[in-house]
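Hi there, hope your week has been kind to you so far. Do you reckon you could talk me through the fold, stretch by stretch? Thanks so much in advance, here it is.
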Amino acid sequence: MKRISKRLIALMLVLAMLCVAPAAFAKTYLTMAAVASSSGLFPYVVSIGKVLNTYCPDYSITVSESGGNVDNTKRLRNGEVKIANSISNTDYESYSGTGTTFNGSPFTDFRILWYYEKSPIQICVALDTGIESIYDLEGKPFNPGGTGTAASVVIHAAFDALGIHPNYFEAGQADAADAYANRQIVGAVKTGPSPDSYVMQLNSNRPIRILAISDEDMAKILEAIPSVKSAIVPANSYEGVDYDAQCISTYQGVQVSMDFSQEEGYKFFKAMWEDGKEIWQNAYPVGANNDVPAMTLQAAATPLHAGTVQYLVEHGYEVPENLIPPEYVPVQ
């Protein structure tokens, strides 16, 4: 009788463990929408997926190539993805319901985890075209950036503000690069830190000139598009381009849905900035020295994730009131 009782007890213990084991070891599987694989930013996003998988073991994240940050934002708004690469001007326009894509349709159910890179929108033209100014693009076949990318949206809006009307060649980045190499178009646009691998590819196929924007024109653009800033592509970032070029600039970041708790967001930020920092620094050496907390506060124009705010406050940063979401709970 005692033996039977012991067996029953052992069986009950095993059954109890089987019942709780799935819950205890359950993972949340997510797809992280990245950028085009041709982008110099793609290795960064892939490495962030690795960081989160390593140091946030409750999650299993698969990084997927996307059609650009505007496409990412549409997918996040539709609930197709919960975490995605983003870009500051599209973040602002989606949140506020402004701009061409999201005009009249504000969406406030997302948060910014961080911004990690300043991304000048580089306007490249072939040196052999003789084009020296953005005004020389009038009527010329020209790719404004990959279809669905924030760069394309910004370039359309900026050129409209300046009264410039190229013959737009709307295509993905790979097709635009082929058209440029085959002399079907005079130039193309690419957002990314300089030097950018895509721009280097254009330059190797057909030497480029990066068109600089004057201070006067930049002032008009910034007034028309308050969600962007200016930046300089330094001289000699690319072979043959021996001058500084002022460009429109945005910031690359990571946006998430409202499904992630303050504790989870805190773990994500800590994993990125502390535990797994070397992983993304090695994968993305061009931005290895970027001060992500400072850049996040500089770039953000929409609320940060509550976990991000908690991390920044704990580490002595002053977070502006407009970036603190209503769900944030101060931790003593």
Summary: The first strand starts at residue 28 and ends at 33. The chain has two domains: 26-116+253-323, 120-250. The longest helix spans residues 2-24.
